[in-house]
Design a protein that fits this description.
Layout (H helix, E strand, L loop, with lengths): L8 E3 L2 E2 L1 E7 L2 E5 L2 H6 L5 E2 L5 E2 L3 H10 E4 L6 E9 L5 E8 L4 E13 L7 H10 L4 E8 L5 E9 L4 H11 L6 E19 L2 E10 L2 E7 L1 H11 L3 H14 L6
Parallel strand pairs: 1-7, 2-5
Antiparallel strand pairs: 3-4, 3-6, 8-9, 10-12, 10-13, 11-12, 13-14, 14-15
Helix pairs in contact: 5-6
Amino acid sequence: MSLLEISSVAASAIPLGKGRIETPRGILPLPLPSVLELLKDVPAFDNGEEGEMIDPAGAAILATLCRSFGKAPSLTLAGQGYGAGENSRLLRVVVGSVGENSASDTVGVLETNIEDTNPQFYEDILEKLLEAGALDVFLSPVVMQGGRQGVKLSAMVPPDRQQACTQIIFTETTSVGIRYYQAERQTLDREVIPIRTDFGKIKVKVARQMGSIVNLMPDYSDCLSASRSKGVPLKQVWQAAFAGAFSQGQLVP
């Protein structure tokens, strides 16, 4: 991929096909068991067509190279290519670029409404989901049937972490059902830079678009730790880190 200067690969959900196929090991059902194993945690669907739509080699390539599956990301198109298989089936590859300092991909979103889980448990639940690979986790207040107050738990997850995060939600909460759907997102180029302050080193998260800084945020945990150890207000540490990011010449507005 480096020789082709391709930094990211995405694919649609995988059509599986159906029927049977003769192999050296005898007649096997489609999709092949090896294909299903390789495509574990990858979005796939039954397209209703007879025949082999994807073989083990193709499944291995997609599962290894693709960072996301679903709708095509927004691209500035640069080229395309086609490969023909049996029965006039075609594989199309589209090459393009996303905006400078930004990236587009598809993620899964898990949602469930909860009304009777002890609120004290939520901090632990959110931490476990993040440790399991969730990209973001948050809670929203909701009003449920009969006017009952509840909480909507949402987790944004990569496709290969969907099952692990689903298991945590079922195990750690009183939920009996989870909604899942795919969502497109666009992200800015981000980096974390350590900044020297009078209160110690504070990490600062920097986001850029088209080469310009659009967001700058001192790390809350670092600021809180420095505030408590130095006995100064939290906002004073935060302001020092924010100002230091520019005064030390590490950032160019």
